[in-house]
Design brief:
Blueprint lengths: L27 E5 L8 E5 L17 E3 L4 E5 L6 E7 L2 E8 L4 E7 L8 E6 L2 H8 L8 H10 L6 H24 L5 H28 L1 H4 L7 H14 L15 H10 L11 H4 L1 H4 L14 H17 L5 H14 L6 H19 L11 E5 L4 E3 L12 H8 L5 E6 L4 H6 L3 H10 L3 E6 L6 H10 L5 E4 L2 H7 L8 E5 L5 E3 L9 H11 L3
Helix pairs in contact: 2-4, 3-4, 3-6, 4-7, 10-11, 10-12, 11-12
Length: about 525
């Protein structure tokens, strides 16, 4: 089951230049997190050498341990790009790094329902604070909505392009000022102005794709004719082509949008002679929609986007070892020089070694390994016999079978869902309220079955007291019509009836608690 968390103007003094070669030097991340418990963990995702940032795959340990409200972590690879970090007490955050950098940040305590705020110091702090404060077209849906409105600014592609360029003037002026005041390096300036261009392509490309898919539903109120709109798409992807070396550090992933436009014929290109990714589309379904569109990309772009998806599928155990081997065989044949190949080959070797060990492992047929309860003493999930669990096909059926006579609060999450994990920092208050009111909590993971070990480890790492269920394929299939995104929360009463299909989030505190009281009143 899958869910879906410029350089313009006459006053511009610095012209865009190709990214220079990296120099050597370790990169250190230092975080101050007042109030964070000792042994709290912060996950840190960094680019693999020569590869774009992958938010899921890590070639080795990628967690920093908080001691005395502080942690220090040295990146393994030391290459230029973006690093993402997140944890129970740390907001999900991107930061720019380059060789030799020491990136420091301090977390301000959360106020009410607001997320904690990071303030940076150290190397390129001015740029990272612009990112943290969402001033570089990285403000999420509000920025996307504003850019979508800009598409209706003029009746010609040239006019709309000028309006989009104007959207980039403010963030790039902020970066230019920081560079001219020597607060950021030239490399930092180049990478972040390039990323601003990719963000405008992201927002505009997404809106225009919705327009070409269903113009009435997209409701962009464009003044351009359809031919002018096509011209705009071609101008954008020519000017800000995500495959250009200038964008090699980008975390935006605009190749998927380019593939969709090529498939629709909006962007020119030959029809694919073979369709390897269409053949494997079902195998990629847990991590990506419509992988067949990537057949329309040039070979170099195919290599990048499919290589990245293979790493994601590996990290999430979204494919069986046999399926991963089958897809990888096609990938290695088609792209023998891909920089992803050494990593993919290592994954294949690891899977082969695990398969060998599994042959001698005792069978677990009929044993419950998917419905457990957090044992606070052992700090691990404990699994007891759960008669009939293997017959459960729906969430309601699970609640009625395993929690008869008890109201249940459901928390849907996954190991790859940053917003879900961010909500876990409110677990202590949530646990106190639920236990005082006789309400059970059931954390329902929608991870793939092969991700069981990671699921159990994360439940323990975040100290999630209560019950845990790794949803079976049948239950996940039944949830598709009703759960299109996570995090999501539900409430069942003691009879097993659903009394609230979408509650407030734990971060909303009293609003949630009052809602639960009202829904269970008299029940």
């Amino acid at each position: 089951m899958k869910f879906w968390m410029f350089l313009f103007g006459a006053a511009l003094a610095v012209a865009p230049t190709p990214l220079r070669a990296q120099t050597s030097g370790a990169i250190t991340i230092v975080g101050e997190m007042p109030g964070a418990a000792d042994s709290a963990l912060v996950a840190i995702f960094e680019p693999m050498p020569g590869l774009p940032l992958n938010y899921f795959f890590a070639a080795g340990p990628n967690e920093a341990v908080v001691r005395g409200g502080k942690f220090t972590y040295q990146l393994r690879h030391g290459q230029t790009g973006f690093v993402r970090f997140q944890g129970n007490d740390a907001p999900q955050q991107l930061a720019f790094v380059e060789p030799g950098a020491r990136v420091e940040f301090a977390i301000a305590p959360a106020k009410g329902a607001e997320a904690p705020q990071a303030t940076f110091s150290g190397t390129n702090a001015a740029a990272n604070n612009l990112l943290a404060n969402r001033q570089l077209l990285n403000g999420g849906p509000p920025d996307g909505a504003r850019v979508a409105k800009t598409l209706a600014a003029a009746p010609t592609a040239a006019g709309v392009l000028l309006a989009l360029q104007a959207e980039m003037k403010k963030p790039n002026a902020l970066l230019l000022a920081a560079y001219q005041q020597r607060q950021i390096s030239k490399l930092c300036y180049d990478v972040l102005t390039a990323e601003t261009e990719q963000r405008i392509l992201l927002w505009a490309g997404d809106a225009l794709m919705r327009h070409f898919s269903d113009s009435a539903k997209a409701n962009l109120n464009l003044k351009m004719s359809r031919s002018e709109t096509r011209k705009l798409v071609n101008s954008l992807f020519s000017r800000y082509n995500p495959a250009l070396p200038r964008y090699r550090c980008s975390a935006m992933g605009n190749l998927g949008t380019e593939a969709s436009f090529r498939e629709k014929g909006v962007l020119p290109g030959p029809r694919p002679a073979s369709r390897p990714w269409l053949r494997h589309e079902a195998l990629f379904a847990p991590v990506a929609d419509h992988v067949g569109r990537y057949d329309y990309l040039p070979a170099a772009s195919q290599s990048q986007v499919v290589g990245d998806l293979l790493l994601t599928a590996s990290a999430l155990n979204a494919m069986s070892a046999a399926d991963f081997a089958k897809v990888s065989a096609d990938y290695l044949r088609l792209f023998p020089a891909s920089p992803y190949n050494p990593v993919i080959k290592q994954v294949l070797q690891t899977q082969a070694a695990k398969a060998q060990l599994t042959k001698s492992a005792p069978a677990t047929v009929g044993q419950n390994i998917t419905l457990g309860r957090f044992d606070t003493g052992a700090r691990a999930l404990a699994f007891a016999p759960a008669p009939g669990l293997d017959t459960v096909k729906t969430l309601a059926g699970l609640v009625r079978q395993q929690f008869r006579g008890r109201p249940v609060f459901i928390d849907f999450w996954a190991s790859w869902c940053g917003p879900c994990i961010a909500e876990f920092r409110h677990e202590p208050a949530l646990h106190d309220f639920l236990s005082q009111n006789g309400i059970e909590v059931l954390y329902v993971s929608v991870d793939q079955p092969g991700y069981r070990e990671k699921w159990a480890a994360l439940a323990a790492k975040y100290n999630l007291r209560g019950y845990h269920y790794l949803a079976s394929p049948a239950v996940q299939e039944s949830l598709k019509p009703v759960i299109s995104y996570i995090p999501r929360y539900m409430l069942f009463d003691k009879t097993g009836a659903l009394v609230e299909a979408s509650t407030y989030h734990p971060s909303e505190g009293d609003k949630l608690y009052q809602q639960l009281r009202e829904r269970l009143q008299g029940k």
